[in-house]
Specification:
The complex is a heterodimer of chains A (127) and B (188).
Chain A: E1 4-6, E2 14-17, E3 23-30, H1 35-49, E4 56-66, H2 68-86, E5 90-98, H3 102-115, E6 119-124
Parallel strand pairs in A: 3-4, 4-5, 5-6
Antiparallel strand pairs in A: 1-2, 2-3
Chain B: H1 2-6, H2 8-22, H3 28-126, H4 132-187
Helix pairs in contact in B: 2-3, 3-4
The chains are: A alpha/beta (127), B mainly alpha (188).
Chain lengths: 127, 188
């Protein structure tokens, strides 16, 4: 299966999904004008990935800010990861936030609660 | 279109339930199954709405915090800009003051030389008995130095301010035309 690579912009996050290594990175700011157009290929890729995912899948999510419709799509991404988990694969979500960004940390905790996926909430220092 | 598409799954589920209701015949078991599915979908939708609302409110808070920080930075920047303008004004005034002082000094020296070389001999001849006339003339020149310096200072300061305003107007006109060009590009 091909990797999925979408370069980040000022309004959209960088998507870097490596099919073979199982490292799925989502990095940046997500405020696309058309969230459906942006996230549909991502969800389609994940739908296909369910059957070919390796034994360990790590989703590394590092978002600075995202809009309401993106929050719905993040839920959809987590739902697909839950399906992979249901297939008996090892799935981990690493949720990154800047150390003074309390809101993003709590958001990660909320996603952890609602998704039922194993989460690691990781803080990093501001550059 | 994009908003409809976000909830495509949920809309599809709703359509399915509506279609089921339009059927004329269905067994108790089928109805129970359909109702169970509907309740499950509804429950999931409520969970989603709850979490999305919570996250959205929280990120709005983050946005407000960022806006506040930006506003406070803007105020600080405006203060610094004012201070800078004041300092520039003070420097300009000092520079002009020095220039005016130099000009008046040279003028005074010139007047002194003129009075010594040209006026003094004439006065000496005209007022033979009155020795203090020449001295009085020099005194008048000396008294006029300070007001002369002030006059030159004010005149040069006015000129410099006019020049500053002209430059500022030109700058604003350039910025306006840039903004207009940007707007035009957006419209196109």
């Amino acid at each position: 299966m091909d990797n999925l690579q979408i370069d980040g912009t000022r309004q959209t996050p960088e998507i870097s999904f490596n099919a073979e290594s199982g490292i799925l990175k989502l990095d940046g700011r997500s405020i696309p004008e058309n969230t459906f157009e942006f996230f549909t290929p991502v969800l389609n890729w994940l739908d296909e990935y369910v059957s070919s995912a390796p034994d360990k899948v790590v989703a590394k999510i590092n978002l600075e800010y995202f809009n309401t419709s993106s929050s719905k799509y993040i839920l959809e991404i987590l739902k697909r990861l839950k399906v992979i988990l249901g297939e008996g694969k090892d799935v981990l979500v690493e949720w990154y936030y800047e150390e003074d960004d309390e809101e993003m940390m709590e958001t990660g905790e909320d996603y952890e609660d609602v998704s039922g996926l194993p989460f690691e909430i990781i803080s990093f220092e501001e550059e | 279109m994009s908003n409809q598409s976000i909830y495509q799954n949920e809309l599809d589920n709703l359509d399915q339930s509506k279609k089921f209701l339009q059927r004329e015949n269905y067994s108790q078991m089928e109805m129970q199954l359909e109702f169970k599915k509907l309740v499950e979908n509804y429950e999931e939708l409520i969970d989603q709405v709850k979490i999305i609302t919570k996250i959205s409110d929280r990120l709005q808070k983050k946005l407000n915090k960022t806006n506040d920080a930006l506003e406070s930075s803007n105020v600080q920047l405006a203060d610094l800009n004012n201070q800078l303008n004041k300092t520039i004004d003070q420097l300009t005034e000092a520079k002009i003051g020095r220039k005016a002082g130099t000009i008046v000094m040279f003028l005074a020296i010139g007047l002194f030389i003129i009075s010594e070389v040209i006026l003094e001999p004439i006065i000496d001849k005209a007022f033979v008995d009155q020795k203090y006339v020449g001295l009085a003339l020099k005194l008048v020149v000396a008294i006029l130095i300070k007001p002369g310096e002030d006059f030159a200072n004010n005149y040069m300061l006015k000129k410099a301010r006019k020049q500053q305003m002209k430059e500022q107007k030109e700058k604003m006109a350039i910025e306006d035309s840039k903004k207009k060009k940007k707007k035009k590009r957006k419209v196109l």
